[in-house]
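Figure 6 in text form: structure in, sequence out.
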C-alpha cells in the first residue's frame, strides 16, 4: 500500500461565486490565502514528495503549506469544463434544461461543451496513481484538486491530517492516508 495525501486547494473568488473553474487559472482569493494560512500539515509529511497541478491556486496552496521542491504535474489539473468554465452550475441547469439533466445523468460520461468527461480525467490520473514510489525511494503525497475525488474510486474512510492552527477557525481539508490501486 502506498501512503498518499490529497489536499484540496484553498478557496478562490470563483469558488465563492460557485463558478466552474476547471483549467482556468484562477488564483486563491485573499480569503483563500487566509484560510490556507490557518492549515497545518504535520511535520511527519516533511519527508514526502510534493506534487501539484500547474494551476496557480494549487501551487500557491502547496507553497503556503510549506511544500519544498514542489513538482508540477499536469495530470493533476482539475477536470476541463471547456466553454462552461466561469459559469455557475445552477445557471447551466436553468439555461440548458433537460439537455443538462440528461448530460449529468451520464455519470462518468458527463461532458461539458468543449471539456472532458470524468472518465477522461480517470484516464489521465490512474496511470499517475500507479507510478511506483520505489522510483524515488520516497513516499509521495501530493496536492490535488477535489474534483478528482469524484473520478477516482476512493477507499472508504480517511482521516484529518491537515488541521487548524490554534489561532484560526478556518476549516481544514481532508487528506487520505493510503490508496491501493489494482494493477
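Output sequence:
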Amino acid at each position: 500500500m502506498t501512503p498518499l495525501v490529497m489536499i484540496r486547494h484553498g478557496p478562490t473568488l470563483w469558488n465563492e461565486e460557485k463558478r466552474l473553474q476547471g483549467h482556468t487559472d484562477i488564483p486563491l482569493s485573499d480569503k483563500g490565502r487566509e484560510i490556507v494560512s490557518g492549515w497545518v500539515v504535520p511535520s511527519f509529511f516533511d519527508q514526502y514528495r510534493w506534487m501539484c497541478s500547474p494551476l496557480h491556486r494549487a501551487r500557491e496552496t502547496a507553497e503556503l503549506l510549506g511544500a519544498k521542491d514542489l513538482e508540477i504535474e499536469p495530470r493533476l489539473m482539475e477536470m476541463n469544463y471547456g466553454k462552461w468554465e466561469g459559469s455557475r452550475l445552477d445557471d447551466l441547469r436553468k439555461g440548458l434544461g433537460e439537455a443538462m439533466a440528461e448530460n449529468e445523468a451520464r455519470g462518468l460520461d458527463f461532458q461539458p461543451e468543449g471539456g472532458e468527461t470524468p472518465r477522461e480525467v480517470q484516464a489521465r490520473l490512474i496511470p499517475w496513481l500507479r507510478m511506483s514510489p520505489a522510483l524515488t525511494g520516497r513516499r509521495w503525497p501530493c496536492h490535488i484538486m477535489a474534483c478528482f475525488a469524484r473520478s477516482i474510486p476512493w477507499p472508504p474512510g480517511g482521516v484529518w491530517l491537515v488541521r487548524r492552527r490554534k489561532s484560526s477557525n478556518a476549516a481544514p481539508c481532508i487528506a487520505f492516508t493510503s490508496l491501493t490501486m489494482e494493477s
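Caption detail: The chain has one domain: 2-80+122-179.
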